[in-house]
Amino acid sequence: MNICGVLVSCLAGKTQxxxxxxxxxxxxxxxxxxxxxxxxxxxxxxxxxxxxxQQVLEIHRTPGVVSAGLTYHQFEPNxxxxxxxx
Length: 86
Description:
Blueprint: E1 2-10, H1 15-23, E2 28-34, E3 39-45, H2 52-61, E4 65-75
Antiparallel strand pairs: 1-3, 1-4, 2-3
């Protein structure tokens, strides 16, 4: 199980739009939205559909994202035999 913390900087005025787009990605959760600095704090974690690192790449590719910096990473061995990422 991978869990990644990411600080996302957005184009001015696009923070809410980016937040909604990122929330739609599997395994991605938006925790903090700062309109005044155009930044988001998000996490991405492994799901049955995809790995966290794939979602971090999708965050980078999201329209309105200027940068996405990995600020935290934790790896734990998968102990759930039913959880197999694509």
